[in-house]
């Protein structure tokens, strides 16, 4: 008889967001008159920029003519897109990254999940705690961890890197050996960013220990302060130890359109293997790719018109973040993040547990947020609010919270 991959059974009960959706649906059914404000799910809400739509329409028309029709896209992505990314996202920031180190995909989530396949099953993964769940889940399913413990909220065989109020949400170097180190900055969920000199410490550590850093820069476009690296390759020596994940989702509203890329430098070698050559053989997005129409849409993000429109929308989301963050602080709440990211990480009042505060906020203010504990044990006592809604809703939410 076929035996299933038993590692899937190690994953705890329900996925965070399906648990939230159930609670919200039950509340709405009981209170049909309440207008619920959703500051929970990490998804954008505003339409694609006109310059992006124009490029997509044009690409759609090209697909309708034999002379301009495109079939399977090149495995690594179209050169027109990789070239503009290499120039605008990296070379302009002083990072020596070329088009043949960029792999276009249908999103960073798939790449974040698949990247672990390049490494042996006995590699030890280290993850920030709290963090975006994909890194840990993909390593669990691959069989790189032991069992989950309900009481601690942790898996055996994983190195947790706590990001707490005490360390300013910046993890300390691992005390145990770690091979695959996942870093996400600006961070989801804490909203906090890392300074270049602090990231350099991780790059030096990885080079000394032969570890590989998997740097998720999905929120790079939200960085507003100087001294915060947009790419890990701004750090010296990163090309021999780091892979970077990027996404058009939060930057340009592509959560439903799907486009991302992964940077695997040619200098990144472990044993005799070139990780760049290995990633060229990857599963997943290699076979799905990103469609021509979508890659043209991605190219338009870098046009003068497109980048201006995209930046304007990011500016509006960041203004929502500022409004929520400053409003909550003025009302006496302790808040973090929201300056270089669209996330506000608030401390729950009166030492409430994250899920307790979730219920409190939903039942008394009709607001949906995300319990910090859902992102890892160190997220307990915190709560994530997102700035992806409209300004009106951000203000309305703030007024409701103030009345609690
Ligand atoms: C939203 C998000 C992504 C984006 O994933 P896509 O698959 O490109 O939509 C990646 N990493 C983090 C940390 C995110 O929050």
Report on the structure:
By secondary structure, the chain is α/β, with parallel strands linked by helices. The strands form 5 sheets. The chain has a 7-stranded mixed β-sheet with strand order 2-10-9-8-7-3-6, with helices on both faces. It starts with 15 loop residues before the first helix and ends with a helix. The chain has helices at residues 16-30, 50-63, 79-90, 108-114, 134-142, 196-209, 249-252, 275-280, 285-288, 292-300, 304-330, 354-365, 391-402, and strands at residues 37-38, 102-105, 125-129, 148-149, 154-155, 159-162, 180-184, 212-216, 242-247, 260-263, 269-270, 273-274, 335-337, 343-347, 367-368, 370-371, 382-386. The mean pLDDT is 95. It has 13 helices and 17 strands. Helices cover 36% and strands 15% of the residues. The longest helix has 27 residues, at 304-330. It binds pyridoxal-5'-phosphate.
Q: Would you spell out the secondary-structure blueprint of this structure?
A:
Elements: H1 16-30, E1 37-38, H2 50-63, H3 79-90, E2 102-105, H4 108-114, E3 125-129, H5 134-142, E4 148-149, E5 154-155, E6 159-162, E7 180-184, H6 196-209, E8 212-216, E9 242-247, H7 249-252, E10 260-263, E11 269-270, E12 273-274, H8 275-280, H9 285-288, H10 292-300, H11 304-330, E13 335-337, E14 343-347, H12 354-365, E15 367-368, E16 370-371, E17 382-386, H13 391-402
Descriptors:
alpha/beta; 404 residues; single chain; binds pyridoxal-5'-phosphate
Strand content: 5-15%
Largest sheet: 7 strands, mixed
Tally of alpha and pi helices? 13
Molecular shape: globular
